[in-house]
Amino acid sequence: MERKINKCKLDELIRLERKYCNTGDVDILPARIQVAMALSVSSFGNDNMWIHLADFVGGVISGLNKSASNEVIYGAFRAIGYEIAEE
């Protein structure tokens, strides 16, 4: 079964992750968690997966390729069976 990831929410999570990675400002973390929880609810019906979504995006941006574009991150989600949906 292919799961859908809301593009607008994913873009916001990416934006917050980039901002946190660039500044280290811990005041960003509550917003990042809130967006990741909303993304989890829209994709899985509950907020249990928020940390995995946040870590996946964070792993790409802060760990593997700081200059990765949003398109690269969408591709990573597609590679593991997710559809990026304009909802």
Characterize the structure shown.
The chain has 87 residues and is mainly alpha-helical. Helix content is 67%, strand content 9%. The chain has four helices and two strands. Strands 1-2 form a two-stranded parallel ribbon. The longest helix is centred in the first third of the chain and has 17 residues, at 7-23.
User: How far apart are the first and last residues' alpha carbons, in Å?
Assistant: 18 Å
Number of distinct beta strands: 2
Q: Mean of residue pLDDT?
A: 92
Which percent band covers the strand fraction? 5-15%
* Element order: H for helix, E for strand: EHHHHE
Roughly how much helix do the residues carry, as a percent range?
A: 55-70%
Oligomer state of the chains in this structure: single chain
Q: State the helix count.
A: 4
